[in-house]
Amino acid sequence: MASTDQQILEASAKHPPAPNHKYQYGTAGFRMKADLLDSVVFRCGLIAALRSRQLQGKTIGVMITASHNPPEDNGVKLVDPLGSMLEAEWEELSTRIANTNNDDEVVSVYNEIARLYHIDLAVPAQVVFARDTRASGSRLASCLVDGLTAAGAEFIDYNILTTPQLHYMVRCINTQGTSQEYGEATEEGYYTKFSNAFKRAMGNKTSTGALTVDCANGVGGPKLTELIKYLPSNEVLQIKVVNDNVHQPESLNVDCGADYVKTSQKAPPSSKAGPGDRCCSLDGDADRVVYYFKDESNTFHLLDGDRIATLAASFIGDLCRQCGLAEEVKIGVVQTAYANGSSTKYIEQDLKLEVKCTATGVKHLHHAAERLDVGVYFEANGHGTVIFSDRALKKLAKLEPKSPAQLAALETLRALVDLINQSVGDALTDMLLVEVILARKSWGPLEWLQTYNDLPNRLVKVKVHNRNLFTTEDAERRLVTPAAAQKGIDEAVKKVRNGRSFARPSGTEDVVRVYAEAATKAEADDLAAKVSSIITANQ
Ligand code: 16G
Ligand code: MG
């Protein structure tokens, strides 16, 4: 037996899988109760090493996080060289090795993958990893180190980072010394790059009133506190950091954070914000953000991912027009079926931009956005970013401004390219983007809200015996099976004014999710209830 095989065999024996547990690399990697994950994280180390070798030693990232899940959960996901999500084929290989039952088989699956993909096991493998603030993180990181060591990979442990910071590191390392050099692969490099871009994008503008940032008691707290040190003074932008207690990991995502705010449509109970105060919430690993405020009559208003998308698309669209690039640079917005119908209508009819709809999950939106010159993509839940194609970047680099106004627009646009994290949706940089746009427009949250009116909507979870019975088409907007269910949904939708509804199996929980919107809240609630009962009856 080769010595690497022996090392993998011995190390694998120290990380036995949980008995009878079926593991699956889902929409956001493996995610579950932390005590079931040791073997999975160990084996992800093996997969990361193989993937790096397959790509001739490019650096692969591994992030240990369970995002908005409860504190006792954890998860692991792999990051491809440009900071994007792992290629789908490799998700399946990860699932396969995770479900392998004994240590000999782990070794044989490892070697089989190498054979299948013609991987030269002598190529040095490079892996970087980080974790969020969960109590189980350091134990799982040591499982990963065991896997990487057994596979003979070289690695850097970045310790605690936000998910987008890890994606940033991966992209920086892999672009070093190329024309696409992204930045310095250190935390300081991250803060310097984005704070400098923020200063350039703000120009001489200042924001009105403080921004309160709820950090979900997660990794976003300490990282935002660090970022603030690099940002301009309070006169330009004042940020109040709340829910940043990472010393009590059991408080992570509890009654706070982006998922709490989006799902319950209210501010965290701890919020002390007054009417008109601008607030936002990050999730547990700081890759999604939603804004909100209370109006004078204390009514809560959510400014979610759809709102960030429309704000960014409209602002970038205006800048492109001012630069004379409107015809040459194709701007589009990518959404999912969850996007509020009013936002889609606003983008198409008012902003006159193209909208694409994809299946749920960041990687689907990202891939669709890559086909545009400027791809603005956001899920309603606050995951998203804006990406610029090489073609668009070349045009921006070459453009000779013909007037001072054009020069100003061009400089702002160039600063935005640097401000927006191109590797993945990043709550911290998305937040800075929103702050720039609001300051530049001299808008508060009320003006932002008034751009269009959301259709009342309702999202419900339906427990089913087997969610795999439910299959979809048309970017998850229609059910293929059970066929009778879609017929029922079509009929129910027809009876409601401005009605739209769909049902899709969750990629992260054993449920079917039902979304409904309509002209009034009562109709949206009714439609959601009707569609839920159709799902229950047709399984
Ligand atoms: C994951 C996805 C998120 C998606 C959600 C849907 C990433 C990084 N995260 O959290 O984008 O909205 O799953 O969950 O891709 P669901 O399938 O349970 O509705
Ligand atoms: Mg997250």
Automatic annotation (TrEMBL):
Residues 185-290, 304-443 form the Phosphoacetylglucosamine mutase AMG1 domain. Keywords: Carbohydrate metabolism, Cell wall biogenesis/degradation, Isomerase, Magnesium, Metal-binding, Phosphoprotein. Residues 1-20 are annotated as: Disordered. GO terms for biological process: carbohydrate metabolic process; cell wall organization; UDP-N-acetylglucosamine biosynthetic process. Gene3D superfamilies: Alpha-D-Glucose-1,6-Bisphosphate, subunit A, domain 3, Alpha-D-phosphohexomutase, C-terminal domain. The keyword Metal-binding applies. Transmembrane segments: none annotated. Catalyzes the conversion of GlcNAc-6-P into GlcNAc-1-P during the synthesis of uridine diphosphate/UDP-GlcNAc, which is a biosynthetic precursor of chitin and also supplies the amino sugars for N-linked oligosaccharides of glycoproteins. This is Phosphoacetylglucosamine mutase.
